[in-house]
Amino acid sequence: MSKGVLIDLTKCVGCGGCTVACKLYNDNKWDEKTPTMGDKAKLTDKNWTVVHRKEVKNKEGQPVWRFVKEQCFHCKEPACASACFAKAFQKTKEGPVIYYPHLCVGCRYCMVACPFNIAKFQWDKAFPLVTKCTMCSNKVTKGEAPACVSVCPAGVFKYGDREELLKEAKSIIAKDSKYVKHIFGEEEVGGTEWIYISDIPFEQLGFKTNVTKRPLPSYTAAYMHATPYVGIAWGIVLTGLYHYTKRRNQISKENNKNIKA
Amino acid sequence: MQNQVAKEKEKQITRRGFLKMMGGIGLTGITATIAGCSTDPAGGKGWMPQQYQVASSFPVQVKGRIPIDPTNPSITRDDRKCVLCGQCVEVCQRVQTVYGYYELPIKNDITCVNCGQCTLWCPTAAITERDDIDKVVRALEDKNMHVVVQTAPATRVALGEEFGMAPGTFVEGKQVAALKKLGFDAVLDTNFSADLTILEEATELIKRIKGEVNAPLPQFTSCAPGWVKFCEYFYPDLLPHLSSCKSPQQMLGAMIKTYYAREKDIKPEKIFSVSIMPCTGKKFEAQRPEMNSAGKLAGKPQLRDVDAVLTTRELARLLKSKGIDLNKLPDEKYDSLLGESTGAGLIFGATGGVMEAAIRSAYFLITKQEPPEALLNLTPIRGLKGCKEASFDIPGVGAVKVAVVHGLNNARPILEAVRKKEAPWHFIEFMCCPGGCIGGGGQPRTSLPPSDQVRQARINSIYNADAHIYAKRKSYENKEVLALYQKFLENPNSHLAHELLHTHYTDRSKQLTVKKDA
After folding, report:
1. Is B432 known to be catalytic?
2. Distance CA B456, CA B463 (A)
3. Is the CB of A14 less than 8 angstroms away from the CB of B67?
4. By CA distance, what is B511's nearest residue in A?
5. Where are the alpha helices (DSSP H) in B36-85?
6. pTM score of the predicted model
7. Which of B41, B48, B54 sits opposite A24 (nearest CB)?
8. Residue in B closest to A60 by C-alpha
9. What is the DSSP letter of B473?
């Protein structure tokens, strides 16, 4: 079973400790221009996770603040991995979608493929790579929680088997009426390892809710599977054409010679 | 023989072969550079504090950190220095009982009483006071502004520590000299308005005890902005107990832009009022919307009573940036009009001090007689014990019972008792920070986390000055305060005094959901 994280947005106090943990563990530099916290927070090649502050209204119509942590959702069937022909993005059996820099050719198909616009490019480097949250895969394989998860003082996160977490999330939102009856990531793009519950509708918190429930790779899998056959067949056709035209030219040359003579 | 073989081999390398080899090396090099010579997946190249390297998602030793609103007027945090050690959570939750004492989800506010104790506990100085030095420097450079400064009682026993002196070194005169050197047009003493506070607050207390005003007993002190905000958040039902007196900082602020401005013939809008405080909460207090009484009186409500607040640490930084060494300065005296002080005003800086000062004056105000020697050395309410009590007889009133608490964790049980109407006291002094203002969130980080040795050294210094250095020890002996009443305010709790020296409080309970079983 794959590992996942359940995020309870009602518990976040907005300390941003998770963004600091991410920087510490992954040795990502601080970006002076783009903060990891607050109203101007933005994912970049250095910011693998950020916490947005959202001013919304609760069910009683009172203005409230909610903090929304953003990072890679780690799709069960990741479009970035299926778009990558170099296998630089790979889905591991533990859950994380990881990135191998030595395999990357820099085409950025992954960035186009990602439904949540997570992967970022190192625009300011001479030999740029693509970056994104790796769910601290080397901690996860050791049975440890990702860095961000392990530092939360408010108990926002639960780390564990994704299917167990899903059951728990369902029982939480069934018992407590303050939650909206929706688990973000349960079905979105075929399901993600990171799932969210909230007391404010997800679209008001900046979540992309109009995504398909079908895994994105399934849209292309059927005909992309034919690629090798089409490639070989096309090769055969072209080879045939080559030989045909070559022979035709030869014959016409010989004919011309005969005429001159 | 061997040489010959080697030479033959060398000859075998042709020009084409050599170029191929070099090209190959180059290509491998470039590939290796791009790939970083590694076939590992990305991430995990940094470090994590040891306590987070564990399997569970939230082990007991993991503390994380407290939330800080980016618009917080008192404190700020540099994320680049944070190591997630959790010391801020430790002090906010266990010493000040703020973090963790409200239910989640939060409402539209990050609960903070602005006490700044976290700035004293943070081992990397990631959390610091919000720096207002630039504001003050700009005002000092402005030739059209009359820049006045006031210094709190507790800064004079701590500022020296920033310049290598022993904890508690008394640097009152040197501090005045340093401020004059910085170019302030007048250096005034918050001790003066502490004396003023005492006359107002003792008068209010007497009125409450005699039943002349419709306000409940016990009366709570209202000098500590952190404590006031704490009460507004967690005990809004007890706000009527709070003395309506402003804190000494705000009283002096209001006096500077009214009485001082009139006497010196300066327009209030041409005065820039700075205060040097041991406290980060004072930055918040000065920004409270209602702290503009001098402006309101002059018909210019946008004027603030206090324009900028610097902590002791900021003053030290400012002095160092101007190359002023406190050690080398002579002692100088405060400027007159709002500069005289008594020992009663000075001891405001230590836990128990406000109470002791109030008792000295209340005794005189009720009996019209000098208080006995025992009331000048009220040892039961001195020192670092969390909650202290005393009882004494005032002829004509009977036994007066008082309590003194410092550190907000010590305040909770007292407040619960008051809530249950089980409180036997008439007057309770609350100070937000452990040790009182001498241990305030803006004081030098002499020991880290703050220690009782340093707190005690500063307290000793304050009581020593009260007993041996200051000529007067009772607020009602302050000639300049008496002159202020004669020329301007008429008498304590007069209508004008209420307008300028008293305030009201805000129920903040709607900004959070108070935890019931905390």
Report:
1. no
2. 11
3. yes
4. A64
5. none
6. 0.90
7. B48
8. B107
9. -
Tell me, yes or no, if B85 is annotated catalytic: no
What is the tens place of the pLDDT at every residue in B349-376? Answer: 999 999 999 999 999 999 999 999 888 8
Find, among A67, A63, A83, the residue nearest to A75 by Cα. Answer: A83
Helix axes B225-234, B408-419, angle to 10 degrees: 50
- The C-alpha of A62 sits at a distance from chain B's nearest C-alpha, in angstroms, of 9
Catalytic (active site) residue B282: yes
Neighbour tally for B379: CB within 10 Å: 12
Burial track A61-79 (b if 16+ CB lie within 10 A, e otherwise): eeebbbbbbbbbbbbbbbb
Task: Find tokens 């540099």 and name the residue.
Answer: B78
For the question of residue B223 being annotated catalytic, the response is yes
CB spacing of A66 vs B105 below 8 angstroms: yes
Q: Do A147 and B80 touch (CB under 8 A)?
A: no
Which uninterrupted H or E stretch holds A251?
helix A227-260
Inform me whether the pLDDT recorded for B60 exceeds 80: no
CA distance A103 to A89: 9
Tokens 């008594």 identify what position? B342
Structure tokens at B111: 């609960």
Contact A219, A190 (CB under 8 A): no
> Catalytic pick from B74, B193, B243, B275?
B243
pLDDT at residue A146 in the model: 94
Taking the C-alpha atoms of residue B275 and residue B187, their distance in angstroms, rounded to an integer, is 10
B335: pLDDT strictly greater than 90 = yes
pLDDT at B4: 65
Cis peptide before B153 (omega within 30 of 0): no
How far is residue A125 from each of residues A36, A40, A89, A204, B368, measured CA to CA in Å? Answer: 21, 23, 20, 35, 81
Active site residue B82: no
Q: What element of type H or E holds A224?
A: helix A216-224
> Of B219, B512, B474, which Cα lies nearest the Cα of B365?
B474
Judge whether residue A234 has pLDDT over 70: yes
CA torsion through residues B73, B79, B83, B89, sign: positive
The residue written with tokens 């030095």 in the block is B133
Q: With contact defined as beta carbons under 8 Å apart, do B231 and B414 qualify?
A: no
CA distance A90 to B196: 72
Inter-chain touch A65–B48, beta carbons under 8 Å: no
